[in-house]
Amino acid sequence: MNAAQLTAPAPDPLLYLDGVSVVFDGFKALNALSLIIDPGELRAIIGPNGAGKTTMMDVITGKTRPTEGVVRFRDHDLTKLDEASIANLGIGRKFQKPTMFDKLTVFENLELALKAPRGPLACLRWVLGGGDRARIEQTLEEVGLASRAHDLAGVLSHGQRQWLEIGMLLMQDPELLLVDEPVAGMTDQETEHTAALLVRIAGRRSVVVVEHDLEFVRALGSKVTVLCEGSMLSEGSIDHVQNDPRVIEVYLGR
Ligand SMILES: Nc1ncnc2c1ncn2[C@@H]1O[C@H](COP(=O)(O)OP(=O)(O)OP(=O)(O)O)[C@@H](O)[C@H]1O
């Protein structure tokens, strides 16, 4: 490492949470949570049930307003924006249950996802251009569904449906993708494919993954944040957090 690299400033964070609390009827679902996600970073979030993982995602996407704290995406104050405005800034969220049109093909679902932000009128007049077709084909490759492009979404396996939904989110070109328990119910092979997929798509965008499956988290090879009782309990490599006595006590040791 040379002197210039040693003194190089850290990149401006893409997502910045500081002192974020959410109180539901006197109960602190988030308790002074701080979290920084860099551009292009892949981050895994783990923690026991009720730790506040979903509430954290809800705060980032504007579904839940924090009681206090700072939530910034680039230079935007997310606490002042509604869900639609936050999505338009480039934050995509994948929920556990995929939402797609079963009677359309994989390609058509991606095509529709590409049109979605253009509004209904634009959709009616919309003709698939060469550039758009190339983007759909690139996304099919990225999520590993190129060979299924012309199959109906309804006949896909559970894992393939999850990948199609990730592909549909990619069509909106998000800068930050939030992914909620992507491998629940997947076979081991599908789980491996999903880890490789998320590693592949991070870099060009940031990806935050909430997951309980620690073998999958290990396969991501990313920094891991452990939440507990609404706060950050530990952060570091999977080996670091798995050997942290506090994490073993509240999460892993049970
Ligand atoms: N709308 C709400 N009203 C009241 N309490 C809530 C609400 N949403 C969440 N909570 C509580 O806040 C705490 C954090 O919940 P959250 O769903 O964020 O945890 P989690 O880490 O995602 O858990 P899991 O792994 O089980 O999904 C829980 O105790 C939950 O019961």
TrEMBL record:
The keyword tRNA processing does not apply. Residues 15-254 form the ABC transporter domain. Keywords: ATP-binding, Nucleotide-binding, Transport. It comes from the Bacteria. GO terms for molecular function: ATP binding. The keyword Ion transport does not apply. InterPro entries: ABC_AA/LPS_Transport (IPR051120), ABC_transporter-like_ATP-bd (IPR003439), ABC_transptr_urea_ATP-bd_UrtD (IPR017781), BCA_ABC_TP_C (IPR032823), P-loop_NTPase (IPR027417). This is Urea ABC transporter ATP-binding protein UrtD. It comes from Siccirubricoccus soli. The gene is urtD.
